[in-house]
Design brief:
This protein is α+β, with helices and mostly antiparallel strands and 385 residues long. It contains eleven helices and eleven strands.
Length: 385
């Protein structure tokens, strides 16, 4: 059985299909056999990091410095296959590559790129991205973290929240206000005054790590400031890289949930015939497939536009919003189709649905992306009075 009823595969190149097959095989080999246990125990598998690095998946859309330099569609396909395994694993790759590594690649100095990117691409160093704060989630302009100049150094004080990987990271990209506006800093996590504490317990993204960060008089040399990062545009450029990956990744979770529902419906017998033979079951499956295929075509369109250098922020918002909405609805419907068995970790839909609650919230809530689209339509920003 196939869920690709529109033959979207025919729109991919041989190289893109090869990337899909390679990452799918990695997921089948390294993630699927263990993910239920990782999720139940709330464990992030650090042993997977060098495996992902060796596969060229860390910063794979970046060029040079040991990065794979793959196209936008190949990157999206890889994120989709990883999230078919679990959103938490895809999130690690996104935080490492699309946030931390992209910040260094886009806004760092040559010395910073040479020092960090090759090691991060191999998985020998882990990065995190400190933008969100306890009182500044959807409104990063309200951040309170402040960096003051002290001779040749900067001293940073503040707090960050829901920062992926922070407790295992070697370097943190920290965004802070200064007297000259928002700037970005590379903070080595063993610096005095830097503390990262995992947020526990969680009902979502349990095979991933999200943290609180406290910065108390953290001293950073000028050489660790990202020289090209000026204003909120800098972190937003990184966020858009991650949002693009989410527009693809969420569809992997949705597809996996649909495939599980299809397999279950074919095997489960009710009233003397397969569940899949029931008209209501077929209607539910058809709706799930339709919504995923529509979102998949949008994601592919965005990928082609990104490769052509034409992709705009509101288009990324449309992709993130459409994909996550479709995926979470499909995961919930698939769980319902599995009946009582659907609440068991033996099956993936409820795990995907729980994870997608986080995916729906981070990198911009539904409301934020709706207002980005509204701004593009009307030319009027509704974010501030």
């Amino acid at each position: 059985m196939t869920t690709d009823l529109l033959d979207i595969e025919s729109l991919l190149s041989d190289e893109e299909r090869a990337t899909r097959a390679r990452v799918r095989a990695l997921v089948d080999r390294e993630i699927r056999p263990h993910i239920a246990e990782w999720f139940e125990r709330a464990v992030f598998p650090r042993e997977l990091v060098p495996v992902l690095g060796e596969a060229g998946l860390l910063g794979m859309h970046l060029t040079g410095y040991g990065c794979a330099g793959r196209g936008a569609v190949e990157y999206g396909i890889a994120m989709q296959e990883l999230e078919a395994g679990d959103s938490g694993i895809r999130t690690f790759v996104s935080v490492q590559g699309s946030l931390a590594m992209s910040a260094i690649a886009k806004h760092g100095s040559e010395a910073q790129r040479e020092a960090w990117l090759p090691r991060m691409a191999r998985g020998e160093a882990i990065g995190c991205f400190g933008l969100t704060e306890p009182d500044a989630g959807s409104d990063p302009g309200a951040m309170r973290t402040f960096a003051r100049r002290d001779g040749d150094d900067w001293v940073i004080d503040g707090a960050k929240r829901w920062i992926g990987l922070a407790s295992i990271a070697d370097v943190a990209v920290i965004w802070a206000r200064t007297e000259e506006g928002v700037r970005g800093f590379l903070v080595e996590t063993d610096s005095p005054g830097f503390t990262a504490t995992a947020i526990e317990p969680k009902l979502s993204m349990r095979a991933s790590i999200q943290c609180d960060i406290a910065l108390e008089g953290v001293r950073v040399p000028e050489s660790m400031r990202l020289p090209e990062a000026r204003g909120l545009r800098a972190p937003f450029e990184c966020l858009n890289e991650a949002r693009f990956g989410i527009a693809w990744g969420a569809l992997g979770a949705g597809r996996d949930a649909l495939e599980q529902a299809l397999a279950y419906a074919a095997e489960r017998e009710v009233f003397g015939k397969p569940l899949a033979a029931m008209q209501l079951t077929q209607a539910r499956l058809a709706e799930m497939a339709l919504s995923l295929q529509q979102a998949q075509l949008l994601a592919l369109h965005l990928g082609r536009r990104k490769e052509a250098g034409l992709l705009r922020p509101h288009e990324i918002s449309m992709g993130k919003l459409a994909s996550v909405r479709a995926a979470i609805d499909v995961a919930r419907e698939a769980r319902a189709l599995l009946g009582g068995n659907g609440v068991s970790l033996e099956h993936s839909p409820m795990r995907h649905a729980a994870n997608l609650e986080s995916v729906r919230t981070y990198e911009g809530t539904d409301e934020v992306h709706t207002l980005v689209i509204g701004h593009a339509l009307t030319g009027i920003s509704a974010f501030r009075g």
